[in-house]
Amino acid sequence: MIRSTERILTTHVGSLPRPQDVVDCLFAQDRGEPHETAQFEEVIGRAVEDVVRKQAQVGLDVVSDGEMSKISYATYIRHRLNGFEVGNVPRATPQDLDDYPEYRDRIAAAGATPKYLRPICRGPISVKTLAPVEQDIARLKRAITAAGTARAAGGSDGTRGFITAASPGTIAVFQPNEHYGSHGAYLQALASAMRAEYEAIARSGLLVSIDCPDLGMGRHIRFRGVDDAEFLRNAALQVEALNDALANVPAEQARLHICWGNYEGPHTRDIPLKKVLPILLEAKPAQLLIEAANPRHEHEWELWAETRLPEEKVLVPGVLDTSCNFVEHPELVAQRIVRYAHLVGRDRVIAGTDCGFGTFAGFGAVHPAICWAKMQSLVEGARLATEKLWPRGR
Hints:
Layout (H helix, E strand, L loop, with lengths): L8 E2 L9 H11 L6 H22 L4 E2 L16 E6 L8 H4 L2 H9 L9 E9 L3 H16 L14 E6 L1 H7 L8 H21 L3 E5 L16 H18 L8 E5 L14 H8 L6 E4 L23 E4 L12 H15 L5 E2 L16 H22 L5
Parallel strand pairs: 1-10, 2-5, 5-6, 6-7, 7-8, 8-9
Antiparallel strand pairs: 3-4
């Protein structure tokens, strides 16, 4: 179990700003254009080494590869699983943006929307290759060692490295199904296929960090036309599929991230955390990374006064907003951390971010340099919170 009895540890959700040469490589790969494997590996490998070094220099405890090899947190699976084709089905926009069409169209015209090919399930799902995840693992481990943080691969102080992976529910919610007869059948096929990726990451000694926006954002995207009860019924199926896929992964080696969409918008259609939380607590991962700093969800910290966090779990609340360029003051970060620590225990809180800083390649609301300034504030805020929670080393 990753927890500290001496100080507040720090981490983030996963994606970080990608350099332009990485973005170019990923889009060429996604379009199926010819590209040199050696050059691709050189570009991605160099970027991973650089981004891990930056995380170490800032002082983060639990680090990632920044998702440098992935064009997005969900559509990357097209290159790793059989059964997907690129289609021309329009991408669904969040329901809250459709409520304000002039704003929606303005941000689209300004280029503030992701650009990538959308996979559609049109055949049986199966594993195409495990080579990409094995390469991700090798790159991250090399970079951790090069950054002088070899302990991050499994140190006694709980500091670790992690690699993100899409949940079966996220893939099902964001990649339309034109092959399977039901949402449940589609989920089962995805769980069976993704199991190998999760197990490969865990087997390496790294943490597998499962992206689950399907449990939050899915409400106002895929399930926007149904009521909350129907959404929650499907959310429970999605957690059941995830648990099945993680059957051979120890709970303490898994993290789960839930969010309501990493974009600046009204978010007035977000389902409250209170409604989703009972289902979320049924998920196997021991660490729960929950969006908690933006103005639509920051108030939900109070839920933990009435909700018991299971003993085997650790809370990783977002204490940085990843959709704006404000750099949170370290004192504010510390206040947010301390709130949670007083409710669930100081040794059961790790300071995190609301979401990623590079959700899609070439797309991110936060300027790269400001991303690192925010991370520095995260680390400093955790230090201040530690002083408040462990006065004079007690």
